[in-house]
Design brief:
Elements (H helix, E strand, L loop, with lengths): L2 H16 L3 H15 L3 H13 L3 H14 L4 H13 L3 H14 L4 H18 L1
Helix pairs in contact: 1-2, 1-3, 2-3, 3-4, 4-5, 5-6, 6-7
């Protein structure tokens, strides 16, 4: 696959994920993964497609790969936190969301996600 074809496939997969068509995005990403599987942007998009298709363990693995490349990627921490939340692993989710908020404190969506986790944990413990 040429570099231009890889970029085109990646952009198409991004569009499909944004339109909530994750299974099509995963198919579109297959040739990209053959060439660029070690790029954080590819793993992040892969994780999002897995997340939206409810393949949560695969999403978790993709987000963890992104964090292996760059532990300071606050969006990957948010996505990992949301993935862990959907798996019912609230304490682990809270840890990731706390890190995301610490890294990017001006993002209201991060604070909102952390507040939601804290509320769920409080409700479970009462």
């Amino acid at each position: 696959m040429t570099s231009e074809a890889t970029i085109t496939a990646f952009r198409r997969a991004e569009e499909l994920v944004s339109r909530r068509r994750p299974l099509e995005a995963l198919r579109t990403l297959e040739p990209v993964l053959d060439v660029d599987s070690d790029k954080p942007s590819v793993q992040l998009l892969l994780g999002r497609a897995y997340f939206f298709s409810s393949q949560l363990q695969r999403a978790e693995n993709a987000f963890l790969r992104v964090l292996d490349f760059d532990p300071t990627d606050h969006y990957a921490r948010l996505a990992l936190g949301r993935t862990l939340q959907r798996q019912g692993r609230l304490a682990e989710a809270r840890a990731q969301l706390r890190l995301a908020v610490t890294m990017h404190p001006d993002e209201p969506a991060y604070r909102e996600a952390l507040g939601e986790i804290n509320t769920n944990i409080a409700l479970r413990s009462s």
